[in-house]
Design brief:
Helix content: 25-40%
Structural class: alpha/beta
Strand order of the largest sheet: 5-4-3-1-2-6-7
Distance between the termini: 36 Å
Strand content: 15-25%
Number of helices: 8
Order of helices and strands: HEHEHEHEEEEHEHEHEHEEE
Number of strands: 13
Largest sheet: 7 strands, mixed
Shape: globular
Radius of gyration: 18 Å
Amino acid sequence: IFWKFSDLVPRVEALASAIGTTKSVAMRSDNSAENVVIQLACACAGTSLYTYKTPTDLGESSHHSVAVASKEDLSLAGYPGAPESDTGLILHDIMHGNFMNVATFERTEALLVEPSESAAAFYNSSRGVEWSALVALGAQAMDHLELSKEDGLVIPITLNHTFGMTGVLAALQANCSVILPSLTPDPHATVDAVFAQGGTVMLADTHTLKALEGMEAPGSLRTGLVKVGSGEALGLKPPVAWSGVSFTAVGK
């Protein structure tokens, strides 16, 4: 799948409009383009997002108004009868029992892709991160990595985490490409994606770099960030290298 930002924004606006005044959305999704759309739409709508690791966890999240996941996961979570989906993700209005395909939302009003400060993202946790704080972290990463529109930011780590979504927001603010190598972590897919898409910067964690040991970094890759501990501080610990490429440590 390949989307330009001009393709992304209408999808975000349409979904944000459909979400409307919904207080909270529960999501079970891997690293997909639709995941990005849902997170940005929640931010724009001023809706809190709660991510869940398994369908069972999603099914137990009864205090939300809307659930979003694949047809299979929704069924496993206890929402039978979901329609087929071209995108792979479907919304379920828990309050009224209605299913809505993410791809079929009509654009009903123009919304700027700007985060509301009234809501937060809860990534598999009871502790939320305000959308405005995520945007600020994205700006920090953008400045540190010196991102420009010529860059391709590779994100092989989960988007259902502050660090992963920080990368997306860094790329959006720098107007550079976001490259999602695979739905779930896959070192070979990561290297292939960097080669194929000309990735120049990468976000990783220690598990990612461990899995990449013995593989050669593509020549296009110039730097990156690696999550080594809690918190979002940059450079408190020594940088970590992969195949001659230096990654700034994030965390303490």
